């Protein structure tokens, strides 16, 4: 899986907003705190607002805040909002792809990849990241020494 800058910045922005909740945060303060380009972050925050993950208000008391509790926003929600489906094959959903023999079972591999992505991304919330208390299954996955090896 390729995690784009857009996804990375979106998750980091939401974590920053979760840490500041319930107070709104200005986009420039979020950009500075997370060391992300302000103009890019503005675009990402617009996507998050359209996806109903954040709300915003203009003015001196304005800024951005989470549209729902951080516990209810999964990393998968963020990815789907700013990039689309978690797994796609040449821009199509895995279940819509067909192959001829002997590659016909490849669709099953792509579906399995999506299932595994969902297993992590749908079960880790912005609140988990902001609190530093990731779910136990994540700790188990990253405890495997092979998880840290480049391949």
Strand arrangement, major sheet? 1-2
Instruction: Give the helix tally.
Output: 7
CATH topology: Arc Repressor Mutant, subunit A
- Total individual domains: 1
Major sheet: 2 strands, antiparallel
How large a portion of the residues is in β-strands, by DSSP E?
Answer: 5-15%
Mean pLDDT: 95
The CATH class is Mainly Alpha
The CATH superfamily appears as Winged helix-like DNA-binding domain superfamily/Winged helix DNA-binding domain
Quaternary structure type = single chain
Low-confidence stretches: none
* N-to-C order of helices and strands: HHHEEHHHH
Distance between the termini: 13 Å
* Form type: globular
Short overview:
This protein is mainly alpha-helical and 151 residues long. It has 7 helices and 2 strands; from the N terminus they run αααββαααα.
Polypeptide structure, described:
The structure is a single chain. The chain has helices at residues 5-20, 27-34, 38-50, 75-82, 106-121, 126-131, 136-143; strands at 54-57, 63-66. The chain has seven helices and two strands. The chain is globular and about 65 Å long. It has a two-stranded antiparallel ribbon with strand order 1-2. The longest helix is centred in the N-terminal third of the chain and has 16 residues, at 5-20. 50% of the residues lie in helices and 5% in strands. The protein is mostly helical. The protein has a single domain, classed as Arc Repressor Mutant, subunit A, CATH 1.10.10.10.
